[in-house]
Amino acid sequence: MELRQLEAFAATLSTGSVTGAARLLDRSQPAISRSIQELEAQIGYALFTRSGPRVTPTTQGFLLYQDVERALGSLRQIRTRADEIARGDGAPMRLAATFAMSSGLVPLALKRVADRHGAGHTQLRSMPAEQVVHAVLTGTAQIGVSSLPLEHRGLCVNWIGQSRCVVALAEHDPLAALEVVPLAALGGRPLVTLSNPYRLRRRLDAAMVRIGKDVSARGPGGLIETNSSINAMSAVRAGLGVSVLEPVTAYGAPMQGVAVRPLDTEIPYFFGVITPQASPLEEPVAALAEALADAAAALLPAFVRHDASAHASLLQSIYDGEVAAEPESPQ
């Protein structure tokens, strides 16, 4: 495979036409078509179905695009790094974080680092929790921030944070007038919830079952599932329901028209900072890890910082659906 073929394929899929890809890459339309045809001949299957000037990716084309885009992204990073080396610049900090952390916590930590050590070059990528783990394990990221569990071999957990989940309400909702919202008051309401059953969603469902609301049964109140707390807050603002959320997005990325209130029932939220176990912790990475802890302590009510050694007991509390054991070091 040649680079020009992969670029032609990616640009055509992105723009939806050979004409658009030709304009994007500053090549002729015949050159784009020829590159794609050569690539299809090499791999043995069609990447697009053609209908005049428009093209539609095949199922195989979509699957291949995910890897091609990653490869092209890595190449762009190499080009950028080559230019930085020519200028004498240091290597960028590569950070992977879940959507909640990248919007609610990471910017606050980066600001602390910039204030203390000066601004630097950071590459931040947002992704699901499982992909954050993968990015750190493979060295794509030097540091990651994700919700628990984080018990994978090859990871070094630097510290674990704990806070309490909150409820997001439309600002005109009568419950928004309360300082603390009873979880039981949400029992008959339309619900907006997170979709990943292997992380926070497990504890949210268990808490709702305790008040007699079976989330999976939906019922007349309705149910919206999403993979992003920002999406959940947007749905709440639109009047589609209430949402019990992790506190990082709720407090770190507040949304106009949405009221955030504590619950009378503790639903713990755990997250951690991870680095590759095989790599020494360089000073800039260590500084960012501490800045993340400082930012979390300043942002989150009732924040608790646990030592990495507490990971096993905290995981047990997650799997058992119980509140964690006594914290080691309250902030």
UniProtKB/TrEMBL annotation:
A single MF term (Gene Ontology): DNA-binding transcription factor activity
SUPFAM superfamilies noted in UniProt: Periplasmic binding protein-like II (SSF53850), Winged helix' DNA-binding domain (SSF46785)
A Pfam family assignment: HTH_1
PROSITE patterns in the record: HTH_LYSR
PANTHER family per UniProt: TRANSCRIPTIONAL ACTIVATOR PROTEIN LYSR
Family, per entry: Belongs to the LysR transcriptional regulatory family.
Superkingdom of origin organism: Bacteria
Keyword hit for Transcription: yes
GO biological process, alphabetically ordered: positive regulation of gene expression
Domain HTH lysR-type: 1-58
Keyword Transcription included in the entry's annotation: yes
Protein name, entry field: LysR family transcriptional regulator
Record keywords: DNA-binding, Transcription, Transcription regulation
InterPro entries listed in its UniProt record: LysR_HTH_N, LysR_subst-bd, WH-like_DNA-bd_sf, WH_DNA-bd_sf
